[in-house]
Structure of alanine transaminase:
Amino acid sequence: HPTSHMREKTLTMETLNPHVKAVEYAVRGPIVTKAGEIERDLQEGGKQPFTEVIKANIGDAHAMGQQPITFLRQVVALCTFPELLDSPTFPEDAKKRARRILQGCGGTSLGSYTASQGVDFIRQDVASYIEQRDHGVPADWENVYLTTGASDGIVSILRMLVSGQGSSRTGVMIPIPQYPLYSAAITEMEAVQVNYYLDEDNCWALDINELHRAYQAAKQHCQPRVLCIINPGNPTGQVQSRKCIEEVLHFAYEENLFVMSDEVYQDNVYSPDCEFHSFKKVLYEMGPEYFNSVELASFHSTSKGYTGECGFRGGYMEVLNLDPDVRAQLIKLRSVQLCPPVSGQAAMDVIVNSPHPEEPSYARFHEEKNAVLGALAEKAKMTEQILNGVPGIRCNPVQGAMYAFPQILLPPKAVEEAKALGMHPDMLYCLRLLEETGICLVPGSGFGQREGTFHFRMTILPPKEKLKVLLDKVRDFHIKFLKEYATLEEQLR
Amino acid sequence: HPTSHMREKTLTMETLNPHVKAVEYAVRGPIVTKAGEIERDLQEGGKQPFTEVIKANIGDAHAMGQQPITFLRQVVALCTFPELLDSPTFPEDAKKRARRILQGCGGTSLGSYTASQGVDFIRQDVASYIEQRDHGVPADWENVYLTTGASDGIVSILRMLVSGQGSSRTGVMIPIPQYPLYSAAITEMEAVQVNYYLDEDNCWALDINELHRAYQAAKQHCQPRVLCIINPGNPTGQVQSRKCIEEVLHFAYEENLFVMSDEVYQDNVYSPDCEFHSFKKVLYEMGPEYFNSVELASFHSTSKGYTGECGFRGGYMEVLNLDPDVRAQLIKLRSVQLCPPVSGQAAMDVIVNSPHPEEPSYARFHEEKNAVLGALAEKAKMTEQILNGVPGIRCNPVQGAMYAFPQILLPPKAVEEAKALGMHPDMLYCLRLLEETGICLVPGSGFGQREGTFHFRMTILPPKEKLKVLLDKVRDFHIKFLKEYATLEEQLR
């Protein structure tokens, strides 16, 4: 029988792991929670000054109406229910791939665990894809690890790299603005976050001098060992030049940094004067002394590109120049999770081994792929143009990825009001936008930005007509917001 | 241009995160690597004293030939390729479930991210399932979180609970023998592993006195805050009695422990005199003072039971009595991973919402389910009987789960030889077994065992005929092994 003492909770805000407490993840932060509440209120017949919440906070293509690539879904459905392999309604090339994937699975079932690194021949297909992408630079499939989305791979590599205490603690260099997975993982692992600022005045380019500055400053209080790059940029949308990449790799070589290159938007390049260069290809072109020594992990995902298959949680990483003993440790670490989802592995295989010209699904596949990428390019342009037409908003070209990250000039009165509320000024702005228009964006403070500047991130994923409405609403709101917070003097003008 | 210095690797065994280095995970450890090497050698025409490697090291049902449940695969295939919803070859109840799942997905696509906790109505289905399983004990769907297999949920909860330094560091009580995910996570998080030993002489039952002993001893050097239970047991196969569970919960109540109850084998109970009782149901029956206070997380998975869908990485956890602020922290922590794989969520939904008696797939579903569970019950019995017929092997009844964990008496000469090789004696045994017979088991040392005792874990998953061959080979090997290592005196006898 229970004793009469009042039982205390074991897990409270006081006893909670303090590093978990310190984690922030804006992409699904308080503003998104608020959007969900408003959405439920609308569904239950509540009154709002709008009829629909538009979630432009996350790169979630299908949720915004993008259609799946037929061939990919055919292959995964065939793997899931192999009786369909006898059905005449599925094309032969889809069946061929499904049979091959099932041959790589224990008991020819998608329901078996795979090796911790993923199915061998899917890793081989990934390696062939990388070779082709990089115009023949050799890729060894043993360096390829399939992952649960890209995030999972990024976290695994960071976990290996974080060690030391005090001034020898691992410093992780990340761009500002950054994708908040990085800051969240660094916080939770108690690593030291080392910020290098992208150059907003120069289309968010990476400035090698700023990298040097950040490194030298960090060396005073930690051991910078990791350099994270996001190219094309999230949230910034910039595409790095080949020259820039070479400078960065030279720097990493000189300073003995482990390079983590987040290249999940490698298929999302829109500006005609930009081209995606993989860090690996550039490293190769710098010569064997670089190619055989710089430790480089590159990440890719089924969630972005033209497929947008976020829900499958597919991805891979290629890790170069890992010490052989360390490689065994990485495999061990990943084996504790058993294996990445096998349907995600199958989806990844379709992306790296898409229909060949002589196959029946070739035409449809490329039609669908080009339609998605063409529409994204148009929307990237439209977003930049409309936002730059708003007084007090300045938006760099969306060269790639899926986001605009415009700077917003906020009136001093609004900044003061936010501070009085203990809130980031761009959070106040985004909250007001959500409440008045139903549009959910993420405040720039969630990604990091130079002190005194304010931004928001929005995806360019909604269908063109809807995106136009959204941008018009943002413009109207912004103008109204500026008026509301104008000084008396400005108002009387 | 590169400078002439020889670039050192950044990530070496010296700089690697030492907690990663310390992790061990025997289920996919060195013996499994060795098995893979031998398998490849066989495929390449190498000569071995056997023609096939049998991997009985892991609970991987489909890899051992178990067929998927048709209804589950139909639903997931329909969700993956919704054009099939028009196909007359799929039953209406499968279509109904697929349509409903897609309604819960953004853009009605399996390719969208879901909420971090999973699709709302799948969580509701899980809650209804739990209520039914527990004969009406109320379940709140807001306490349900879908996960990437059970492991992912277990790691999340542990990550919240680990804090403090020195003698206030979190102690995590785990059974010995245990499933090595627990020891791996504890090591990596630098928590303190607190062992309580299951009673091998009493069918691996949990002895409440041993729990008290372990707790009191641990209090001297850490802060025991978490009690992990595996029921039915992995690797031990025992099913806890209702009385035992009540004692454990009373203990957790008194000592303010957070209870983690790994119940992934809840559908795998074979002994006619055993019954699965969920920790939650027993807690409820102990009265509101218990039910409204003990913090309890329970875990389930698509990978075990009668479905064996490991590759989908589906699972859920139900977390009771979490402090509301802490709950928000848990959601935040999980949101960094974005969401569990959506096809795994769909698979989980089928398990908790299987065909009803009036639906067309009911008969086939139950036929398939009963065939799997019936065969497992037979194989559990057969495994116990054959192993107990071998001199020097003693096997407790396999009351539930999917494994036998027999004790093996090893000759002193074998123990000495292993020690000279710097190897656990049961590792030597399992390596020899693998090399001579092609059978891959996991040494007991990978799960933990009382000092001086030796075991191995084997799954009972191979088809009956194959399992019989496997067990006969183990018997023959064991007898030969005993002879080989017998003392001269014994040999002359």
About this structure: Chain B has a mean pLDDT of 94. The radius of gyration of chain B is 24 Å. Chain B touches chain A through 100 residues (CB under 8 Å).
